Amino acid sequence: MTVDTVEVAQADPRRRQPYNELGLKQDEYRRIRTILGRRPTAAELTMYSVMWSEHCSYKSSKMHLRQIAEKAPPSDALLVGMGENAGVVDVGDGWAVTFKIESHNHPSYVEPYQGAATGVGGIVRDILTMGARPVAVMDSLRFGPATARDTGRMLPGVVAGIGGYGNCLGLPNIGGEVDFDRSYVGNPLVNALCVGVMRRDGIKLARATGVGNRVILFGAKTGRDGIGGVSVLASATFDEGDAKRPSVQVGDPFAEKVLIECCLEIFAADLVVGIQDLGGAGLSCATTELASAGEGGMHIDLDKVPLREPSMSAEEILASESQERMCAVVRPEHVNAFFAVCAKWDVLATVIGEVTDTGRLQVDWHGARIVDVPPRTVAHEGPIYRRSIQRPAEQDAFVNHDGRTLPRPHTRDQLRATVQQLAASPGLADKSWITDQYDRYVLGNTVLAQPENAGMVRLADNTTRGVAISIDGNGRYTRLDPYAGAQLALAEAYRNVAATGARPLAVTNCLNFGSPEDPSVMWQFSEAVRGLADGCRELGIPVTGGNVSFYNQTGATPILPTPIVGVLGVIEDVNRRTPHGFWSDGSLIYLLGETREEFGGSEWMHVVHGFLGGQPPRVDLRRERVLADVMIDAARDRLIDSAHDLSQGGLAQGLVECCLRHAFGARIALPPGTDAFVVLLSESAGRAIVTVPRSMEARFTALCIARGLPHGCIGVVDSLSTALEIEDQFRIALPELLQAWSATFPRLFG
Amino acid sequence: MTFPGSLDDRDAQRAVRIAGGDAVQLWHADPVLPDVDAVILPGGFSYGDYLRCGAIARFAPVMEAVIAAARDGLPVLGICNGFQVLCEAHLLPGALVRNNHRRFVCRDQRLIVENVVTVWTRGYRPGAEIVIPIKNGEGGYVADERTLNELEASGRVVVRYLGGSPNGSFRDIAGICNELGNVVGLMPHPEHAVDPLTGSGLDGLRFFTGLAGSPNVSEGRTEVAVQR
Hints:
Number of strands of chain A: 28
Mean pLDDT of chain B: 92
Largest sheet of chain B: 7 strands, mixed
CATH topology of chain B: Rossmann fold
Strand content of chain A: 15-25%
Number of strands of chain B: 9
Helix content of chain A: 25-40%
CATH superfamily of one domain in chain A: PurM-like C-terminal domain
Number of domains of chain B: 1
Number of helices of chain B: 6
Strand order of the largest sheet of chain B: 1-2-9-8-7-4-5
CATH class of one domain in chain A: Alpha Beta
Largest interface: A-B, 35 and 32 residues
Structural class of chain B: alpha+beta
Structural class of chain A: alpha+beta
Low-confidence stretches of chain A: 238-242
CATH architecture of one domain in chain A: Alpha-Beta Complex
Distance between the termini of chain B: 29 Å
Oligomer: heterodimer
Shape of chain B: globular
Strand content of chain B: 15-25%
CATH architecture of chain B: 3-Layer(aba) Sandwich
Helix content of chain B: 10-25%
Number of helices of chain A: 27
Radius of gyration of chain B: 16 Å
CATH class of chain B: Alpha Beta
Largest sheet of chain A: 7 strands, mixed
């Protein structure tokens, strides 16, 4: 077969090209022809098709995402904002931290283990690319009903994949969340977060500057795995998984581990001008992004790319998503030193091209030019769509069918049974079946890990400074009201971070939605983005980066709209972090915030009645700020010895988790004149429970009063009682409670 | 010791420092062993462990010297992957196989210290019950009946799991030593129990203080903890 070179493209302009099969629309194809003034070569068509995919180009989301930057609150902490591989924030003392969350939903459906594993691998490389040492990972997962066959196949594979890759990389997994809903059958969500630490002056960027500088590809060889992952898997709805297995990448965590150590040594010696990882869209993405962010010109000799399979075509080489590869721009005088570090770690490195001043990305293969394009048109000037938006008619039905008439427990025994039933439900039950498969100790800096409010790591051995991160999201709330749902996710993550004593500083997000071609999905998306942008402005913390995942649906039915929000906070002295479990006998239990009768989207309606309707809990971000300030100041001044945010399952679930953490009982007296069911199970936002040593009570209440935070003492921690006791209501012995809470996952998954 | 794919190497160094020793980083490709008082082979996935855990690390250039020195009495502690390397190197009998439940397991594990004669465990009371994290995918200790009987008869079972084995280890064995007692292999990770802030507690510290001969350790509490 003859190679489709630029020359051939000019000589044979009418050749039919498979743009449709590659995921490009006809007008997109026409636009490429206009840009180039001729038809694209096969290789060029491949590059445009992967880079203009929804996954890489954000063509449906871009016009909405702009407001996140436009509304961003002023922040001194933001060193690198949206648009780079990951945002970087200044966390004080010369330290900087970079963090980001990304989805790997579709690959995980096709091949749970490898899909999830390479999701971790990809986000870790993004963090590494910024110049940071990756120090921890987290994961946010959604599956169909826990009892569904689909979930039984998916969940163990996904968890083993996340664990298998992260454990082998030597990165502690410090937390995350998992939930179940019918809408995720056939479309699980696998979102992985990574956080990295560096010195402020160590930031690296993805740009190919300096004419004559060498372009070096290093890491694993290029193979046929993951071809078209971004365009085939991530940017369309799909039904038959098996046929798409070659589109899923295969991970080699050992290769990534040595790549990390190799890169960090290269960074320390200051041997790179710019660096980019190879993930989605592989070499097409790395070369065009590096070139367009730098001098604008680059020449690549594709024959130099080390291949696993020598028979690969140029298009396959350009589109391959083989994992554990990086691309660096290196001054000629540093090439030998660069190769020496790679040799020490047995990492394969090859000069494949150089930076030019032509303003074009030119790729040669077998002695002929097969690509000659302006790189910006590939990487940044893809199509932008103003998708139609339509608030779905059934949205009103949610408001009208609010579940107010659903039968509630009306005896003490029924209430007791309901609390136990919720504690044992898959969404709220003990997750250690999952988290015990993740190494949380490695690197020796983990201060808090699941099931705590947030994960917390110390930045290094020689400092007490640390960061805390929580990731949260609630598809049911978001389904009822996407604007409020996104803000509730943000508020929960913010509250969780503050509950540990860390001050929230920055936000990342992963927006999981159905097809952007469905106007009602686009309504959900636009509302959620607007809610997130407004929420961040009100809380005063900027978004540093994120990821959009569309086409999460099975047939015509989209998943629950699921924005996952990650908040990162800083704590100056990790010794002062607040744990979430009761551990101090005699401490007073305070409920902070206000409890209203709010059951829309609640766990009680979902678990007990299988019902979704009404309004989600009211959002009051001003109150969230006050609550956070009180918890942070109280931690710093040691006025509290534990704190736990209240969210799904309300006060009852909060108490269950606090008691079971260290097997400490509690005696609770609900406020007089209140409805025990509402107080225990409502999911009002902006609330937390804290425990206060008696000697600190006066100071603590004075703090709440000064800040105008509603607070009330509802009980006492009692190590002798060995039960959760709600006065005048019920008593559940801790062993019985533990059995209910911890037996669910082993029963379901073995 | 750092092999490519070692993960808990920095944690082992930290533990040695906290115990009052000087930690020296050793590199798998070094042809000779520097003048050290002891060697720790850390946890991780050396060379990816794609063949059999520890099977390739055992042939690392520096291992020839380590094996020879161990046979001459140099104290060597293998933790997790290090234990697997020691078995592959035939410095310790038996082998470590995939956990019987087929899942990776990370949790705080109760253990009993049965042999307090080795240089690595002499800081403990006989029969001391301690809590130390385990984290392994292939931590099931197996050996033939004769070997197991011999290990038990000669007091070479150093630590045993309490409350049942978390990985299917024969006779709940969590750690063993060689005949001389200088080479110890452990599946649990004492280096993650030397600081209550970031580990499971302090119960692992004596694995390192015994060697450093540190006088700082008193029952239940160390100078390190008091300073904090």
